[in-house]
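Provenance and format

Records in this collection were gathered into a single text stream. Each protein contributes a sequence line and a token line. The two records reproduced below are adjacent in the stream.
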Amino acid sequence: MTLATEVKKLTESKPFYAVAGAGDYAVEKLRELPEQLQRLQSRRYDLAKDLPVKAREYADKAEGIARDFPEKAREYADQLTHKATEVYEDFATRGRKVVSKASGEAALELEEVSEAAEPPVAEPVQPVKKTRTPRAKA
């Protein structure tokens, strides 16, 4: 197969789009990170003050959670499978949009470059005249 065929096959696959969508999502979330860090830093004193009370509450709940764990684990696994499928589809859809936008911009750039380039000037070809030479008589 040619390289162009392989690239086309790759760019038409759902995993390709899912990876592109996941990357776009990661960039979006990383841009939000500085703001989130500021909010958490402003709350750290309140969180530290409430920590001993919360620790006792969680210790009391731990026993009940341990008893229900096997059943809850099956439920969570089912929910996780469903959610993973949804996220995969969302990333694939998002990736298609990102790739479509990027490939559209690249196509516009190529068009601009091709318009800016001077086309090669073809020189006229002179037809070759065939001349007949007389045959030698024996």
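Adjacent record:
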Amino acid sequence: MTQKSTSSNVSLRSGLSCLWLTVVVLIIDQVTKYLTIQMLDLYESYEVLSFFNFTYARNYGAAFSFLGDAGGWQKYLFTAIAFVVSAYLLYSMKTTSATHRWMNSAYALILSGAIGNVMDRLMFGYVVDFLDFDLGFYRWPTFNVADIAIFIGAAMIIIDALLWAEKREKQANENK
């Protein structure tokens, strides 16, 4: 039996090695939400810049308060979706080589956001939001660190699909 080279051993490692990113972003998300709850009353706002405030808000729905006034059942729906998405992301990380750092980082970011918001739903029945941008002509819905992680991870996947997926597929076909 021959020994494989170090570079091929690295390629056999899975993307689960990026779970450290999930943990770091999840900690930041939960600490900032905790501080928001401790330092602000509900709907209280603290101006940071003329267009940016820390505002304690509760989101009973999903993105942009979708289904926020649906009566409570949406909590279970969004929690179930988060568990399914998290399982899929973990599977994707496990089956993706550690050398694909971009995609594994994207998965890790989305996973941290999904877990962070589902933790809120399970603990409180709502998601804690606090980042509030008011541009004068448009007020963005209040959001949190978990939402930022989900957005960045999703943007990374889109960028990958637009710029690099075809190149990887072509290389894979050439290696067959």
